[in-house]
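From the pipeline queue, job 12 of 40. The input is one protein chain; the requested action is below.

Action: predict structure.
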Amino acid sequence: MAETAYTNRRLAAVLAADVVGYSRMMSADETGTLAALKHHRETVFDPAVARHRGRVVKLIGDGALVEFASIVDAVKCALAIQRSIREQTTPPGNAIVLRIGINLGDVIIDGDDIYGDGVNIAARLEPLAEPGGICISGVVSESVGNRVDVRFKDGGEMAVKNIARPIRVWKWHPDGDPVPAQAPPQPTAAEPAEPEPPSIAVLPFNNISGDAEQEYFSDGISEDIITDLSKVAGLLVIARNSSFAYKGKSPDIRTVGRELGVRSVLEGSIRRAGNRVRITAQLINAANGAHLWAERYDRDLTDIFAVQDEVTRNIVEALKVKLTATEAASIADIPTNSFAAHDMFLRGRELLRGTKWNREIFEQTVAVLTRAVELDPNYAEPYAGLGMAYNLDFQNKWTGAADALDVAARFAALAVEKGPSVPFARWIASVIATWTRDLDRARQEAEKALALSPNFAPAYGTLGLAEIYSGNPLAAIALIERAMRLDPAFVQQYLHFLGTAYVVAGKYEAAAATFRERIRLVPGTDLSRSLLACALGHLGEIDEARRLWAELKELNPRYSFADHLTRLPFRNPADADRIKDGLAKAGLPD
C-alpha cells in the first residue's frame, strides 16, 4: 500500500490466527468443516475477542486478524481461545485447532483495515506456533511481563521474511499449562460478555448563549459533570482531555463510542442569560444511537451545583449503577457557597487547560484564581489551581522565580487543608510532591485521589511516575496503562511515562517500541528521543541511536542530557545509571 502524507498510524497489539490443517479438513468434509469453523467463531473466538476488548479487523478464510489497544488483553484473549481446546469433544481429526501469533508494533490505518510491520510480524509469528499454541515477539514478552498466568518459553532468534533483523520469539502451549481448563463463558442476549463496568464519555456541552466569552462556563459545567461521574466506582468514565477532543465537531455518536471504547455518550447544550441558565442533556447508547435519557433544566445560576448533582444521578440511574452512600454524599457536596468564586475558578481552570502557555497566561491564571480565593478563602480548588500554575512556572521558568516550587507546595498544602476530600487537590499535592522528591508523599496523595475518584486518569499517571522514580517500574506499567484507557486522546504523554518505566525495568525492546510511537505523535520531543537512544544503545542498535541523537540536537541544539537527568527525581542512583549506560554503549555524550 502506498503511504501518503495523510497516513494514519498507531501503536497496536495484533493477533493473527490460522486453523491448523484447514485444507485437509476441507478436502475430507467441506460442509462439516465450514460448520465447525462457524461454531468455533461464534462460541469461542468472537466471545473471547469481545471480552478482551479486541476488534476483528478481518476474517480471511480460515484465518483472522484482530487488533487490541492493550497487549495484555491480546495475550489473555489468545490464552482463553487456546485453552478452550481442552474442552472440545469433537474427534481430533475434525476439531478446530488454531495457531496464534501476537506482536506489538506500528500499524497503518486504512478505513477498517490495518497494515504495516506490526501486522506483518504477527502474521509471520503465527506459523511458528505449535498447533494449539501461541508464539509472541520479544517486545510482547517484555510488555506483558508477569501480568498473565503463564510463562512463555524462549524460542530463540528467528529470521522473519521481509524483516531486516532477527526477532526473538517466545512460545506457549496448553500441554504445559498449570491453569485448570475452564469452559469459556457464553454470552446471552440479556448479559453481553463484557468485563468492564458501564462506560461513558461526556462531550463538551455546546455554548448556545450567543456569547463566545461564555465558552469557559459551558466547558466548566461539562468538566464538573465528568468530575462527579468519575467518583462512581461502578462506572468507567473517559477523562476530560479525551472527551474534549471532539469540541467544535459534530461526530457520529457511534464513532465516539468506538474511538473511546464506551457504551454511552452524554451530550448537551448550555444557554446562560443574566442570572438564569438553561441546560439540556441527553444520554445516548453509543452502539445504536438510541436515547437512554434526556432532560432540560431552567434554573438560577445559584442552583448550578444542584443541577449538576441531578444530572449525575439521572445518568447513574439510567446506566443501572448503584451509588454507595459515600459516593452519593460526595456528588452532593457543594464546593463553595459563592457562585462568583466558582465562576472565577472555572475561568482559571480553563486557562490551566490551555495549550499555549507563557508568562502572560500564567499571570492571568494566577490573577483569576487569587480572586476566587479572595471571594471564598475556604474554597479548595482555586488553591490547587494556583499550586499547578506555580508548578508550571517552576517547570518552564517563565518568571525565573527561584521559589516557584516552594510557592506551589504551599498552595497545594492549603488545598488539601481546605478540601481533604477533593480529588483535584490531592492530585496536585501528588504532582508537586513528585518534583520536591518526596515520593512517599506523592504516592500517598495519588492513592487518596484515586480512592475519592476511581476514574481520575491523571492520578493514575502521577502514581505511575512515583513508582518509577521510587524504583518500582513494573508496578507503574499497569497504572499508566489504566490512565491510557481512561484518557486515550492524551496517550502521547502517557507513552513517555510508559517508555520510561520499561527503560528503568530493563525492558529495552518494549521501551523502544513505546518511544517510537511517542515520537510519531509528538515529533518535536527531545526527552523521548534521548531515552529511545538509551534503549537502542542497550539493544546494540548503535547507528540508529546516533542518528536519533543527531536528530535531537538538530531539534534542540541546547539540549543537555545531564541537565535532564538531574531534574528527574530517581530515588535509586542505579536507575539513573541504567539510562546513562545505554547512551554510553552507543558512544553518545553524557
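Job complete. Confidence is low (pLDDT under 50) at residues 1-7, 180-194.
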